[in-house]
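Sequence in, structure out. First:
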Amino acid sequence: MSLASPIDSKLEGVVWKRTLKEPVLSYPTLAGEESTDIVVVGAGFCGLNAALAAAKTGQKVILLEAGIVGSGASGRNGGYNVPQFPGPITPGVVEAVIGKKKGQALSELVLGGADAVFRQIERYQINCSAVQHGWVQPAHSEASLAKVKKVFDAWKAWGADVTWLSQGDLSARLGAAGYIAGWFNPTGGTVNPYGLTIGLGRAATQEGVRIFEKSPVDGIEEGPGGVTVKAGPSRVLAKRVIVATNAYTGDFLPDVQRATVPVYLYHAATHPLRAELRASILPGGECFTDLRKSGGFGRLDDAGRLISGGAVFAFGDKQAYGIAHAKNRMRQLFPQLTDADCEFEDYWEGYCAVTESYLPQVQRLGKEVFAVVGFSTRGVNLAQNLGRVVGEFAAGTRSLDEVPVAVIEQRRDVPLWALKVRAARLVFPLYQAKDRLGLS
């Protein structure tokens, strides 16, 4: 899977595909010429929700996907539905970056977003192993404790239903070692993300969206008659286009590709844990993500597999490196695990798009052509809810000013993009060192 062509429709090694409960639907490949009101490019969380929201207003929508529905980051992430910005970002920081009005609106979207995802799953009866037992952000060091407490205080002042947890509280909730304190939001939880994308595709078609798979877009041209979206010899003429390809854009649209740094991540899933371990590890079904740079998070799937991961270190045998790190981190978090408990059934990789601010943004690529990028590890919540908002904008029921993120009116590449892409693939040992020294 190269950066130029990152599509992996087979989802090799992804546990979510192997444990899928939602029936897979197949969609045709675009052929010939079509016309519609709105074209959405990319059938992940953002694109599916944008298409769904626009179609619900009565707009005709065509959704084009280069691979298959959910084959990008949406179908291969960890499945954490988190009601918080990436890491230690607070609502105040967001307001400082994008302004008070949009910052407050985005904070509201994030705070209520995890619950909104679960309610939509219920509305469309999507069978994606959804568990809403809450999310915890624990502090693993004195440095992280100050950041975690600041985030908690900010949400508490916002009026959020959040709870501060002592070291003893954390131990009881997580069954994990080494945490000092943290906080809990009951609206968070977990999903099978690939199952969720499959279900969203079904929901979108129910609302009238026409989905075309294996139809990679290789050109977008705007003219007096509208916007022409090209996919090989086939064409779609539309009034407005939303590009939602994120880290899976490839080379055809450098304006979008170079607006974020694609961070290459891996996940690994154990065999289902023994009954006595399941009683002591995340016994209440919560999930957690800490502030470790080299990955500190935990969840169980519905069969009791423990899932971990981190950034890929693309030097030497990267898979062996990732598996060794995942085993060590699991043993560090949960000393009750043996080496045999940490044997993995599944290992997979994929891209995550990170902006310089760690916040998503909308890019204006033309008068009626827009892209949404940069969910920075918060795609299950942010990509879906922002996708819905962008879909409402595409349909004309919401103004661009009402989309609660920065709108970039001209091309703005990440400085030193090529160097940062390379560095992101080699920096993992540095992350590990910072964590060992208590600097994260």
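Second:
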Amino acid sequence: MIRALWFLLKVAVVIAAAIWLADRPGTVSVHWLGYAVEAPFWVALLVTLVALGIAALGYRLLRGTVRLPQRLRRHGRARRRERGYRALTQGMVAIAAGDAPTARKMARKADVLLNEPPLTMLLSAQAAQLQGDERAAKQYFTAMLERPETAFLGMRGLLTQAIKSGDRVEALNLARKARGLQPNTPWLLGTLYDLEAQAGDWAAAEGTLQQAIQAGAIPTEEGRRHRAVLLLERSFEAERRGRADAALSHAQAAHDIMPGFAPAAVRLARLQVAADRLKPAAKVVERTWRLSPHPELADVYRGIVSSYDALTRVRLFQKLVRQAPDSAESHLAVAQAAIEAQLWGEARQHLNRAMEIGPTRRTYRLMAELDRGERHDEAAAKDWLAKAANAPEDPVWTCGSCGAVSHNWGGLCGHCGAFDSLTWKSPTVAVPLMEPTDIPPVLARPATA
């Protein structure tokens, strides 16, 4: 509607101008080089407008002719750039498809056509990696460090190579440099945290862990467990340095974060026993037993109540049964205390209950011990031991990364060095741990007693 009105307005202006000129007739005379030309004004005006039009058209033709080579060059560059980007895209597709020869071919083509190294170096590096040429890939990644716009990508490529080759020291240095370039990158914070933890730099790992949680790289609940593990390792480190107060403080913080985490409770209770704080230690065991019964907790509790007579120890262990009545560990703990007190009926009752819940080799061994002590029946004891050989294995600390087993908990797997990978379960295929002398110094730590 507006455009139609605007058109009508322009037509009206032209008509008005024509009427105005028609009402004011006149002539135009031109005298030049002895010639005299006379014409009506409207004719002179029309000739002038036509001349201006011809002049403008000539100017455009002349300018187009002069600029033709420049336009041809610009068109050629555009075509070249289009072909370069097409080659770059085909190279990325080849990378995704695992076609290394095509990827390298397209990388070279894109590099020639585009002449923009920041766009093609990453493709070249990835193509080299796909072909297994890590040396060439490293050269590309290193070259990318020289340009601010590609420095972080180059750092990430070198970091990935270092992790893949198992060079944790180099990987840690690269990760810290990369954080200086992009401090809030989630994947980088998660990687840096893993590397610091595997290197045993517990204090630095704890700080990085907090950043990783805030950046969303690590879920909050998982981060709580990781922090508890870090605090436990800091507790062991403080104890090695003779800082008993710091060791106890870190263990207490770990227990407060995860009251149901047995290693934290065991560590805290043992430090409290060493400080002659038996009642707080007993409360720690009882609190954790309600959430997660564990034989190491029973061992600590046995040490706490060792000063009492045998009958009193049985009554105290019965408190654990009340905390977790449906756990086989509760009944096994009371049964062992009852055998020591020679309360044979009490021991048999709890062992039978443990058998109902789920027998393991330890259950059968305690039954053998019971028959030897109560009835002096060596044949029955041997029968129980034979059953133990075929029974499900007792749970042990098992690495979720490599399957190695350990009878002592640690923040690092002694076999593969994975952090926070040990879980309490029955092993499937046992992978022996390295001997303590074979563990790299950065991984070595005192075993939990």
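Remark: The chain has a mean pLDDT of 84.
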